[in-house]
Amino acid sequence: MISYLDFEKPVAALQARIDELRETADNDSIDIDAEVEKLQQRSTAMLADLYARLTPWQKTQVARHAERPHFRDFVDNMCSDFMPLAGDRAFADDQAIQGGFATIDGRKVMLIGHEKGHDTATRVKHNFGMGMPEGYRKAIRLMELADRFGLPVITLVDTSGAFPGVQAEERGQAEAIARATEACLALGVPLVAAVVGEGGSGGAVALASANRVLMFEHAIYSVISPEGCASILWRTADKAADAAQAMQVTAQQLATLGVIDRIVPEPVGGAHRSPEAAIEGLKSAILEELAALDGQNPVALREQRAQKFLAMGA
Question: CA of 269: how far to CAs of 3, 8, 14, 77, 145, in Å?
Fold first, then answer.
């Protein structure tokens, strides 16, 4: 069962009517196929129309949908094998940031990303995708390992931001994020990042300072959450929709600004409605970007990355 968002209520009502008709047909052996097909077509058209004109705040809600694919879903559907690597060799293994050796269509890569979890237990286990310092230090370790073996790095970004708790600050959260960003920029191998849900603040940039930055059609990417921005500017999170509009958080806006390089289309109604199709589309886009970066030497890759980010806002 799909969990409907507030703005999807007309579609939810229509789908409930379809389910009711099907239940009636099952009980009374009434042939209502034609009516159901007509309503289903109307529902699909309504959904496509809704998603063609989403506001930035509505896209924020879609990007946060609990049923969107997360890191483990990408591993299971995109990789033929995956060898997870754990720990930062200094303090602990952060469950919010996962990574390891992977094979995608026969190509060996280092895959790193945020994992939010799908239910209460796994969300708590993965700290809702909010990385701790040891998570970013683990990412640095894996990037350096990939560089040593000449493997391209792929990062999947999906976090509201790095964990802001006292214990994270005590262990050097800001320094860890800065070092991870530095590690991205210093890589001598191709780095392709994909914002697949939320790309929040330094917690996202630490894994997304890449040669090519991809973004799902209904993902968001910003320096702070809309609620956080509204709390600072208007002293209330109730203005989050206004903040989202002003911050230009959507893939379409960020592509125009040159912050991201490519928008990856999602199935009608968002990636949560057809995760396998969404993942397949992202896989194809990643492989195309890696192919375009093949043959570039380490100096050229570093220079391309540096110039890309220095040009932003100029």
Answer: 12, 10, 15, 20, 38
User: CA 248, CA 221: separation in Å to the nearest integer?
Assistant: 9
Q: What is the pLDDT of residues 139-181, one digit of tens each?
A: 999 999 999 999 999 999 999 999 999 999 999 999 999 999 9
Tokens 């040669």, residue located: 211
Name the strand (E) or helix (H) holding 12. helix 9-28
Q: How many residues does this entry show for the chain?
A: 314
Which residue do the tokens 């973004």 mark? 215
Fold adopted by 60-310? 2-enoyl-CoA Hydratase; Chain A, domain 1 (3.90.226)
What residues form DSSP beta bridges with 79? Answer: none
- b/e per residue 38-52 (b: at least 16 CB within 10 A): ebeeebeeebeebbe
Structural tokens at position 52? 């063609």
Q: Where are the alpha helices (DSSP H) in 150-274?
A: 166-170, 173-186, 201-208, 226-233, 240-247, 251-257
Asked whether 1 and 19 are in contact (CB, 8 A), the reply is no
Q: Give the pair of three-digit tokens for residue 246.
A: 């002003």
Q: What is the tens place of the pLDDT at every residue in 264-296? A: 999 999 999 999 999 999 999 999 999 999 999
In this structure, what are the phi and psi dihedrals at residue 196, rounded to the nearest 5 degrees?
Answer: -105, -10
Q: For helices 133-149 and 201-208, give the axis angle rounded to 10 degrees.
A: 10
